[in-house]
TrEMBL record:
Cofactor: pyridoxal 5'-phosphate
Entry superkingdom: Eukaryota
Residues bearing PTM N6-(pyridoxal phosphate)lysine: K391
A cellular-component GO term for this protein: cytoplasm
Assigned protein family: Belongs to the group II decarboxylase family.
Molecular functions per Gene Ontology: glutamate decarboxylase activity; pyridoxal phosphate binding
An example Gene Ontology biological process: gamma-aminobutyric acid biosynthetic process
Name under which the protein is recorded: Glutamic acid decarboxylase
SUPFAM superfamilies, sorted: PLP-dependent transferases
Pfam family, one: Pyridoxal_deC
Organism lineage string: Eukaryota, Metazoa, Spiralia, Lophotrochozoa, Platyhelminthes
């Protein structure tokens, strides 16, 4: 038989107020009879009833039991069953009180994020507080696990603070590690509204405003390419955008693939450069082409596709009874920032009847500048284009677009007209139900932040943003050329990737090519290691074919200034001179 608490075990009907920071919860102490009554009343009054007993907190346990009972209960020396008291001072809250708490919590979060943004803009602040995975697991062990029982809002606020503490500040003006960086306040505001609206993008009826914004924004991008009409959709990243292009090219050459699959299809061949993004190969795997049907075209010393080799590979495929299908050219390669000669490639594609795709996920920023759009000359002749505004335009992640010259290609290629979503007898123009042309069903609203940011900057603002980055690129190249110990991987880079080595003074007399290769390979990696540990800046590095590890500094953050360039160069020198190779 279970023991019932004595009258002095729990104080009845005594109202308490428990305050934790700004989040207040009205609490009431109840015995079993009071608990049942509270449940009955909460159901009757339609208010929220919650509660739990935290057995890891002796102070709260002591407040619920008298001295004789508490020691037995906590030491397990009693048959007293605590299950019925599985509550942390039962509390009931009406709906208006909950809304007040949620509002205060959101206000606290906004204040936290604004403080994070303010500190990020302090140039002397750290870019990151680096910990190895096992160290970070240990440091965040108290809040990393997902609990069985709910945590209060104060704990959640603490969790958010702890999370930001260890995040890399990708909006910091001295963060040069990835192509996607920077933090635009207007784009962030767009993300806030997007999250609050929390809608999908497959039909007009659930996203009327955002659907129209998407139409306007996609046409704006097509205009910049040089197309008066066409098709397009926002996608979750450049990899999926490139997949869309390959699926469309496959459909254009073999429409029966939609019903018959690849069983009776000819052997279609994709051509891309050896320095193209790996997503082309991945898309070939997913779409059924297979890696053997991806022919890698040689590049020159600057990373550009060799068009003579392209023609050789096309002729070779024809001789082998295969069907050349498409060329995936690149506008701004990931490592060297090289632009394939699109105009020349487009003429080759026209000659052989090939689909031309331009992956300018990174290099599309050049289209925003009258001074630099020549880098993409001939892009208007492409059949499809990948454009990532979250790269050179510095829109918050993620924001990626696939664009097509031909209208309705996406719906013809991917459409299935699911009856539960895309009914044709709706009371509005169903052409605005764009979800059927997507390879997804649910699709995130990625347009609003771009639309809002473009409204704030205009074409002129984006042009100035891109032009200023090119000015910084020229300044950095000049500094590297003049400073002892630095060597450029390629002279006069045409885009915003600046690739170089730094040789510490003690290793500058190494003569043999093999020893120098090994030294450069190790020094670059060790400088990056020291850079992470100091947390003052971030730059990526990588090898490339026969070249040893080298730094790749990316300029896409609009907040970067000349003093940041000076700092990172001096920091590399400082860290490099501290290195000792074994």
């Amino acid at each position: 038989m279970k023991h019932q608490p004595t009258s002095d075990c729990v104080e009845r009907n005594k109202k308490k107020v428990r305050r934790k920071n700004k989040f207040v919860t009205k609490s009431y102490s109840l015995d079993k009879q009071g608990l049942c009554e509270a449940k009955r009343l909460s159901k009757k009054l339609a208010i929220n009833f919650r509660g739990q007993l935290n057995f890891d907190n002796p102070k709260k346990q002591n407040s619920l039991f008298n001295q004789n009972q508490k020691s037995k209960l906590l030491t397990g020396k009693t048959n007293y069953d605590p299950d019925w008291t599985n509550f942390e001072g039962c509390f009931a809250t009406d709906e208006s009180f909950q809304e007040s708490q949620e509002t205060e919590f959101l206000q606290e979060i906004v204040e936290l994020l604004l403080d994070y943004l303010k500190k990020m803009r302090i140039k002397t602040s750290k870019v990151l507080d680096f910990h190895h995975p096992h160290q970070l697991k240990q440091a965040m062990a108290h809040c990393m696990e997902i609990p069985d029982t709910p945590k209060d809002l104060e704990q959640l606020l603490s969790d958010c603070k702890e999370t930001l503490k260890y995040c890399v500040k990708t909006g910091h003006s001295r963060y040069f590690n990835q192509i996607s960086c920077g933090l635009d306040a207007i784009a962030v505001a767009g993300e806030f509204l997007t999250a609050m609206a929390n809608t999908n993008m497959f039909t007009y009826e659930i996203a009327p405003v955002f659907t129209l914004m998407e139409e306007v924004t996609l046409q704006k991008l097509r205009d910049l390419i040089g197309w008066s009409s066409g098709d397009g959709i926002f996608s979750p990243g450049g990899t999926i955008a490139n997949l869309y292009a390959i699926l469309a090219a496959r459909f254009a050459y073999y429409p029966d693939v939609k019903t018959r699959g690849l069983f009776d299809a000819p052997r279609l061949i994709i051509f891309t450069s050896e320095q193209a993004h790996y997503s082309i190969k991945r898309a070939a795997i997913i779409s059924g082409f297979g890696l053997n049907q991806v022919k890698l075209v040689k590049c020159n010393e600057r990373g550009k596709m060799d068009t003579e080799n392209l023609i050789e590979l096309i002729n070779e495929s024809i001789e082998n009874k295969n069907i050349p299908c498409m060329v995936c050219s690149t506008g701004g390669t990931t490592v060297l920032g090289a632009f394939d000669p699109i105009d020349e490639i487009s003429k080759i594609c026209k000659r052989f009847g090939l689909w031309l795709h331009v992956d300018c996920a990174w290099g599309s920023g050049a289209l925003l500048s009258k001074s630099h759009r020549y880098l993409l000359n001939g892009i208007e002749n492409a059949d499809s284009v990948t454009w990532n505004p979250h790269k050179a335009m510095a829109v918050t992640l993620q924001c990626s677009v696939i664009l097509f010259k031909k209208e309705s290609i996406l719906e013809n290629c991917n459409g299935l007209c699911a009856d539960y979503l895309f009914q044709k007898d709706k009371n509005y123009d169903t052409r605005y139900d764009t979800g059927d042309k997507s390879i997804q069903c649910g699709r995130r609203n990625d347009v609003f932040k771009l639309w809002l940011m473009w409204r704030s900057k205009g074409d002129e603002g984006f042009q100035n943003q891109i032009n200023e980055l090119f000015i910084l690129k020229d300044y950095l190249c000049k500094i590297i050329k003049e400073k002892n110990g630095f060597e450029m991987v390629i002279e006069k880079p045409e885009y915003l990737n600046i690739c170089f080595w730094y040789i510490p003074e003690k290793y500058r007399k190494i003569d043999t090519a093999k020893e120098k290769f090994t030294m450069l390979h190790e020094v670059t990696a060790k400088i990056k290691q020291s850079m992470l540990e100091s947390g003052t800046t971030m730059i990526s590095y990588q090898p490339l074919f026969e070249k040893p590890n080298f730094f790749r500094l990316i300029l896409s953050n609009p907040s970067c200034k000349v003093e940041d360039i000076d700092f990172v160069v001096d920091e590399i020198v400082k860290l490099g001179e501290e290195i000792n190779l074994k």
